[in-house]
């Protein structure tokens, strides 16, 4: 579905991504783990057209989308849930969801999707007319996911969805990611909580200082001694 080939991204002469390649097959959850500053967010920003690569190629459903702007990329079916949630604080929950559907004109379909989001996140329905800025961190993350789903993406990209959330809320968010995936949604997940991410991932990559250093199934990396030591807080035996 999505292929990144030899992607190089530079900021002021410093290479943030150093020729990375990865693949996101249709219907899978693919996760990318790595420390802060490894280049994970830069990769997502490149895919959605917010950062222009120096070289390399991004191919989606057989089309080269390298260099397209964000609006063109959303039209093709890729949507990003950004790090830090980025909801519109002075708009209601419902208005935030409606903004997610700004490129659609099928009113009935939009309402059905809003109902589906409310079914997944009952707390959002309870707070439908509440200003988004007054929601808790967990509720804002639910809203950010719901808003992204209103664009009806084929590929949902998520940047650190667990950041700053309580453990119980993190568990809920990861359950929702699995549920969305079970309904046919392909997910590319960037996450510092390596343990949770690898548990739900079909495929996983490790990004270190702009390079892919390891890949495999989520289960394989979860059992890898180096991954356990570096990301899961377990000592090598």
Q: What is the terminal separation in angstroms?
A: 38 Å
User: What is the succession of H and E elements?
Assistant: EEEHEEHEHHHHEHEHEEHH
Order of adjacent strands in the largest pleated sheet: 6-7-8-3-9-10
CATH homology-level superfamily: P-loop containing nucleotide triphosphate hydrolases
Q: Which outline best applies?
A: globular
- What's the number of structural domains? 1
Supply the helix-strand structural class. alpha/beta
Percentage of residues in strands: 25-35%
Mean pLDDT: 89
Our count of helices gives 10
Largest sheet: 6 strands, mixed
Assign the CATH class: Alpha Beta
As a percent range, the share of helical residues equals 25-40%
Q: Which parts are unreliable, with pLDDT below 50 for 5 consecutive residues or more? A: none
What is the element layout, followed by pairings?
Elements: E1 2-11, E2 14-24, E3 29-33, H1 40-47, E4 55-60, E5 63-64, H2 70-75, E6 78-81, H3 93-100, H4 107-120, H5 122-126, H6 137-149, E7 155-159, H7 167-182, E8 186-190, H8 194-200, E9 203-208, E10 211-216, H9 218-223, H10 225-231
Parallel strand pairs: 3-8, 3-9, 6-7, 7-8
Antiparallel strand pairs: 1-2, 1-4, 4-5, 9-10
Helix pairs in contact: 3-6
Task: Report on this structure.
It is a single chain. This protein has 237 residues and is of the alpha/beta class. It has a single domain (2-24, 39-211), classed as P-loop containing nucleotide triphosphate hydrolases (Rossmann fold), CATH 3.40.50. The protein has helices at 40-47, 70-75, 93-100, 107-120, 122-126, 137-149, 167-182, 194-200, 218-223, 225-231, and strands at 2-11, 14-24, 29-33, 55-60, 63-64, 78-81, 155-159, 186-190, 203-208, 211-216. A six-stranded mixed β-sheet has the order 6-7-8-3-9-10, sandwiched between helices. A four-stranded antiparallel β-sheet has the order 2-1-4-5, with helices on one face. Strand 9 (203-208) and strand 10 (211-216) form a beta hairpin. Helix 3 packs parallel to helix 6. It is globular. The protein starts with a strand and ends in a 6-residue tail after the last helix.
């Amino acid at each position: 579905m999505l292929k990144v080939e030899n992607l190089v991204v530079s900021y002021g002469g410093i290479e943030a991504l150093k020729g990375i390649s990865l693949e996101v097959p249709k219907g899978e959850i693919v996760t990318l783990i790595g420390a802060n500053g490894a280049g994970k967010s830069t990769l997502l920003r490149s895919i959605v057209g917010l950062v222009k690569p120096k070289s390399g190629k991004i191919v989606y459903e057989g089309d080269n989308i390298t260099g397209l702007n964000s609006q063109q990329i959303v039209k093709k079916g890729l949507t990003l849930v950004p790090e830090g949630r980025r909801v519109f604080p002075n708009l209601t929950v419902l208005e935030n969801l409606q903004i997610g559907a700004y490129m659609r004109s099928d009113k009935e379909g939009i309402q059905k999707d809003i109902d589906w989001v409310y079914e997944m996140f009952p707390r959002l329905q309870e707070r439908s007319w509440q200003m988004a800025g007054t929601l808790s961190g967990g509720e804002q993350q639910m809203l950010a996911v719901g808003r992204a789903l209103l664009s009806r993406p084929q590929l949902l990209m998520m940047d650190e969805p667990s950041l700053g959330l309580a453990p119980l809320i993190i568990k809920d968010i990861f359950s929702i990611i699995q549920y969305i995936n079970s309904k046919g949604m392909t997910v590319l997940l960037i996450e510092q909580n390596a343990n949770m991410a690898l548990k739900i991932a079909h495929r996983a990559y490790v990004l270190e200082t702009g390079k892919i250093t390891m890949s495999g199934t989520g289960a394989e990396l979860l059992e890898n001694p180096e991954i356990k030591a570096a990301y899961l807080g377990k000592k090598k035996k």
